[in-house]
Amino acid sequence: MFINTKIEIQNVRKGFASDKGRLDVITDLEFKVGDGEFVAIVGPSGCGKTTLMNIIAGFLAPDSGAVQVDGVARNGPNSKGIMITQQGSVFPWLTVRENLLFGLPENMPEREELAAKYADLVGLEGFENNYPHELSGGMLKRAEIARALVVKPEILYMDEPFSALDALMSLRMQNELLRILAKERHTVLLITHDVEEAIHLADRILVLSPRPARIQAAFDVVLPRPRRVSSPEAQELRVAILKELGVTEPV
Amino acid sequence: MKMLKQTLPSILVLAAVVAVWWAVVVLTKSVIFPTPGEVVKGTLELARDGTLWEHIGASLFRVGAGFGLAVLFAIPLGLWMGWVHGAFVTLNPLFQILRPISPIAWIPIAILWFGVGNASPIFLIFIASVFPMIVQTTVGVHTIEKRFLRAAENFGVPRGKLFRRVVFPATLPQIIVGMRIGLGVAWLVVVAAEMIALRSGLGYMIIDSRNAGNRYDLVIAGMIIIGLIGLALDGFMRLLENMKSVRWRYVH
Questions:
Q1: Whole-model pTM over 0.80
Q2: Which among B189, B187, B188, B97 has a CA at the least distance from the CA of B134?
């Protein structure tokens, strides 16, 4: 289904110096993400998921190995791939509209229309001139997604994007994300600890081992969309993934 | 109604202070220390012949000039020191040494360098208000959250835009805090400076009233006016904190 490789992670290693000497966070990690593919990475907390994401997005350099995007080694972040994190990074000193305009070149003639279009797309019409502190958590997330999409990135790096929201809002935002991705296809790399979220959204799920992180198992999610996470097939997959993570449920 | 409930106690305290003051002066039959009534009378006298407004204007002009120069100097320097690590480690020790020196201690040097005209108090006000503003601006840049800088880096915007859209507005709330501190100190210093070297301003008015015939009604009038204007200046700076683009820093 995904013929062209978009992102290739090659033998990535990363460690940090600690009191007890070197601490390996990631060792020999290798995988590919297809163009237009939605890959979710799940793993126990503290296993180095965020470090991995920062390496792939270009904010951190690996100790060895490489990350290639479109066959070109990446050095440093760029607007081809935008990161969305749990904390969020919508600038609180700019209005929603100014946030959306931020990543667009000043001399771009259609920048205002684009910003308005994406505010509409995420359901923020009427809030363009509000400041972030006047918005709810869910709306703030929408603003962040819109700010990312407006620069037409090819890749979205989502690091636990909805974890700070309550369960209901998190589900709502997952549906929103699917709705938006149905309109505009992007390659998405999602890090989450929520297995159901991964099953709901992803084409493929990679399970990371405890530190040092490597890929312990991979699951193709072949369920038709729109997905029902409560369906027997989805639940079966969930049990299998949780088992990989070392969690077994009483039968 | 709620407003009244909040302000009523403070009004009562003020009224009590005035009442006690009045009673004590009357009971002790003091010939020098004035009653509140005499202070008001003296103030009105000065207001009518215009000297009061001249003194207030002179003081405000000096504060405006010294503080304005300090703002123009401190904010760019503070941004630079906050952003460029080399600038910070080079200049910060110097400012940390200069900062604890009371502006009053600079008075002899100010007179030596600038004489007894307006330049001396303007220089002293500059010295008094520039350091807190440099420090606050630098701290403001240093405490910009990494997630915001990362996001800016992610979008790959040019350097000028990074400064205009991220670094400066992210630092602005701290800059305003620095300006509030700076203006407060400036107002303290102008009065002290005018007591020593000048022939106009509220500080001069106080000293002159005492020297020229023990007019303690005007001494106290000057003190109260200084307090009220200081309050108004701080209230003016507080308005800046209400700007919507800086509210985020103060609401949490």
A1: yes
A2: B97
